[in-house]
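Quick start: what a row looks like.
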Amino acid sequence: IAVAFLGNGQPQAANAASNMLLGDALGLLGGLLWGATTVAIRRTALSEAAPSKTLFYQMAIAALVLLVYAAATGNAGIRYTPAAMLSVAFQSVVVALSSYLAWFWLLRRYLASRLSILSFMTPLFGVSFGVLILDEPLDGAFVVGALMVLAGISLVSGAGLLREKLRRGKRA
């Protein structure tokens, strides 16, 4: 992941570099909090709850926290533009409803360590969709880093699958 996001090594303006570091820090914080959510779900009664109930709790708490934050920062006003409404609809239906329901369903059935493969691929999907949908440029360092991530995932997953296949072969 580090190689994929280091870029081509060209110097950047100081302001752009500081914004990039802030974005990277927020991305790491998001990953940390996502991991904490996964641990909390697996270690509490939510591990036995229906995925829709888990999603409801998470969305309700997030809505309360965001409303308090908006009021505290003086940003409680809403501008109903078409772009804002489409963005909220996409986030609600595709991101929150579909993907989180699938994620919570998977967490109830599989070990979180096996599902971590999907987490490692998340940045690759994000950049790939940026290239495909938004016509963003594709950096060579990203391609090399993405191939390294995919090779690592294949190595780790392949080793486990190979061990299981060998065990089954010995039993037969």
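That is the whole record. The mean pLDDT is 79. The chain has six helices and no strands.
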